[in-house]
């Protein structure tokens, strides 16, 4: 799944922590200054103050655009937009996400106290109200955690510990040893199958456990200190907490060593191993797998995908050789860290201090209203999305986006047909796939039904728990059923977009189709440069190094001739070689094997948007505006979506975990491969934005 931009601001870390057993950011009462602020009144986002799509104050005219186009386009923005204290990064996407959050806050604040509410409004209003009641949350301390801890403490033998994995995965939040769930079958995308994969780590990536540089060692020390602190907060003596922390790090390091690298996980063949349940017992015989799946809601399961078989062998080794007290400590910690954000302020603060401050350099917690708005969006996203869409997303906006998307798809078809390196046989398959792509714009055709989920206005911890179990049950209920191709992977207010290779669809939530990213009041040039390039980006993901391995039905199938596959690799290696030369921070270069899918999508998507814009304005007499020609306005509009500032700590995390290149590379890397840009700005050979060898895949 390729995103145009990583989930913005702290939401990116929330997504990352979800894979580490953490469900949300912490927030202390002392820093919940949002309680004294006033949200924006509930009005259409079009009426809110915003920067125009082409903001001349964002420019740095002291920079030659042919030497550093990103700095020319974004230097003023970077100077005028310091990173807020509660953010790891600040960007154009982040600012829009913040505006959307303020808008949602106004909706939720009103619904929390409204008397006449629909059932959907009741759920999101009461969830928000309970989350904002920090006094009630603090009075409970960690009492809500005690029943779960007591159940873990009762696992006093190895057989009990191993048998408990089934109910722990079913009933407790967090990630324990491995993950399980349902997914589309990679070779038959029309059905949902069960899956087991790597998990159980508290740090963002396997390399955090294995790298020996000074910074990595320091982060591990800070992680151990966090474990010790959290274990002490749930009642362990300091000596015991330190011993437990050592055991937890030992277990997680063993799991990390057996985990695939992120680059390898981008290869769909390396994470697809469909086997029988009996064969899974051969990998990990300690667990009674039929009983395990019965507890999850899948009795009688016969086959599944095991994404990382070697990892499951490591799970077997840990379950059968680690001292039971270390395994029990591991379970206690992962339960506590998963629930910390729903407990009293000290737990929230401890979690924030490590995951946000130590890892990403964020000095201050977000105001409480932000935390609670994000939690409602995460737990009841399509319920909240209904309220957002009703107020912000018009039928005309949906129609306009559909029109631009169709233009860009037409441009893609023309580009494929004209490729001189691809055979007619492969072109035929590529065009079949292109024409099968579904465009999902704004919001789902049918909203998710939350009627079975109970939400109370005075039970924050219970709401979080019930929402998590509701979602878990919903996912397992898909098993063996036809894939719902109308389902979305993002909520409507999200400021992002994505392509799904197995669904073979591109998805643009209403949240990303707002000013300043798309502005109906602006001329076509910056709109096509910005939103048009986003659409082209997602479309190009269908044919990047990962997406190209799936066919028109979303099945993992090789539809390329050997010569064409070789030609593709030669061209994408040109992109990889270029981006590997960019430095992210310190002496850390872009891992271009990790980012190549996004880099190719940036380059291809911008070219497609340019072609579509030219077609849209064909025959028109376009005048210069604000001292820029129409072509220059297209490229400046394209560049200004990526204006950003990032903390050094966040850049280091992204270098290991983020498949997107940093903003400067996403702009300069694109325009150096576009003769259209060089012509627009009269760039000369030898200037930094002019490459002797242009990289072009699509």
General description of the model:
This protein has 698 residues and is an alpha+beta fold. It has 28 helices and 12 strands. The strands form 4 sheets. A 4-stranded mixed β-sheet has the order 1-8-9-7, covered by helices on one side. 53% of the residues are buried. Residues 3-53 have low confidence and may be disordered.
Residue share in helix: 40-55%
- What is the terminal separation in angstroms? 19 Å
Beta fraction of the residues?
A: 5-15%
Average pLDDT over all residues: 92
**What ranges have pLDDT less than 50 throughout 5 or more consecutive residues?**
3-53
Q: How would you classify the helix and strand content by structural class?
A: alpha+beta
Coarse shape: globular
How do the strands line up in the largest sheet?
1-8-9-7
Q: What key phrases describe this protein's structure?
A:
single chain; 698 residues; alpha+beta; four-stranded mixed beta sheet; 28 helices; disordered N terminus
């Amino acid at each position: 799944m390729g995103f145009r931009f990583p989930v913005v601001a702290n939401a990116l870390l929330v997504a990352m922590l979800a894979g580490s057993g953490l469900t949300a950011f912490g927030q202390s009462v002392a820093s919940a200054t949002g309680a004294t602020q006033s949200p924006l009144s509930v009005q259409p986002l079009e009426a809110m103050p915003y920067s125009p799509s082409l903001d001349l104050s964002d420019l740095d005219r002291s920079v030659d655009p042919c030497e550093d186009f990103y700095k020319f386009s974004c230097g003023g923005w970077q100077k005028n937009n310091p990173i807020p204290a509660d953010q790891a990064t600040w960007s154009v996407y982040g600012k829009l996400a913040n505006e959307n959050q303020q808008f949602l806050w106004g909706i939720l604040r009103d619904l929390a106290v409204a008397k006449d509410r629909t059932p959907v409004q009741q759920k999101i209003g009461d969830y928000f109200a309970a989350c904002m009641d920090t006094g009630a949350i603090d009075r409970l301390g960690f009492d809500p955690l005690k029943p779960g801890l007591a159940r873990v403490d009762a696992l006093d033998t190895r057989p009990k510990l191993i048998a408990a994995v089934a109910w722990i995965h079913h009933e407790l939040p967090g990630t324990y040893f491995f993950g399980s769930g349902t997914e589309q079958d990679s070779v038959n995308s029309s059905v949902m199958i069960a899956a087991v994969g790597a998990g159980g780590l508290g740090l963002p990536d396997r390399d955090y456990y294995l790298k020996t540089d000074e910074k990595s060692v320091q982060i591990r020390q800070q992680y151990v200190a966090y474990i010790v602190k959290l274990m002490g907060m749930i009642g362990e003596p300091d000596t015991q907490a330190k011993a437990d922390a050592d055991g937890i790090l030992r277990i997680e390091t063993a799991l990390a060593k057996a985990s695939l690298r992120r680059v390898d996980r981008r290869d769909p063949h390396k994470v697809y191993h469909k086997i029988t349940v009996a064969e899974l017992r051969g990998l990990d015989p300690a667990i009674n797998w039929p009983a395990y799946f019965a507890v999850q809601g899948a009795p009688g399961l016969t086959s599944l995908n095991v994404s990382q078989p070697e990892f499951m062998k490591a799970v077997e080794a840990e379950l059968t050789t680690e001292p039971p007290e270390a395994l029990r400590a591991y379970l206690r910690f992962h339960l506590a860290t998963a629930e910390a954000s729903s407990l009293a302020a000290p737990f929230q603060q401890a979690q924030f201090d490590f995951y946000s401050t130590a890892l990403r350099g964020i000095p201050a917690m977000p105001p409480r209203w932000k935390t609670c708005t994000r939690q409602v969006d995460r737990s009841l996203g399509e319920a909240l999305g209904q309220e957002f869409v009703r107020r912000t997303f018009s039928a005309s906006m949906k129609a306009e986006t559909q029109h631009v998307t169709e233009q860009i798809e037409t441009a893609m078809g023309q580009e494929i047909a004209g490729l001189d390196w691809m055979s007619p046989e492969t072109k035929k398959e590529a065009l079949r796939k292109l024409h099968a792509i579904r465009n999902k714009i704004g919001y789902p055709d049918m909203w998710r039904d939350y009627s079975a989920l109970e939400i109370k206005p005075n039970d924050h911890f219970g709401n979080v728990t019930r929402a998590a179990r509701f979602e878990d049950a919903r996912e397992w209920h898909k098993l063996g059923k036809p894939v719902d191709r109308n389902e979305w992977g993002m909520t409507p207010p999200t400021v992002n977009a994505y392509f799904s290779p197995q669904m073979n669809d591109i998805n643009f939530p209403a949240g990303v189709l707002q000013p300043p990213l798309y502005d109906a009041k602006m001329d076509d040039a910056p709109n096509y440069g910005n939103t048009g390039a986003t659409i082209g980006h997602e479309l190009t993901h269908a044919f990047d190094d990962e997406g190209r391995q799936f066919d028109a039905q979303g099945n993992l199938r090789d539809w390329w001739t050997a010569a064409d596959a070789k030609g593709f690799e030669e061209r994408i290696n040109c992109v990889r070689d270029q981006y590997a030369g960019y430095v992210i921070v310190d002496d850390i270069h872009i891992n271009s094997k990790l980012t190549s899918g996004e880099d190719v999508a940036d380059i291809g998507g911008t070219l497609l948007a340019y072609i579509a814009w030219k077609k849209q304005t064909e025959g028109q007499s376009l005048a210069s505006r604000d001292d820029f020609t129409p072509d220059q306005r297209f490229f400046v509009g394209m560049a200004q979506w990526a204006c950003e500032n990032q903390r050094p700590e966040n850049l280091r995390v992204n270098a290991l975990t983020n498949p997107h290149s940093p903003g400067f590379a996403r702009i300069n890397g694109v325009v150096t491969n576009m003769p259209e840009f060089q012509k627009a700005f009269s760039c000369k050979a030898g200037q930094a934005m002019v490459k002797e060898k242009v990289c072009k895949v699509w």
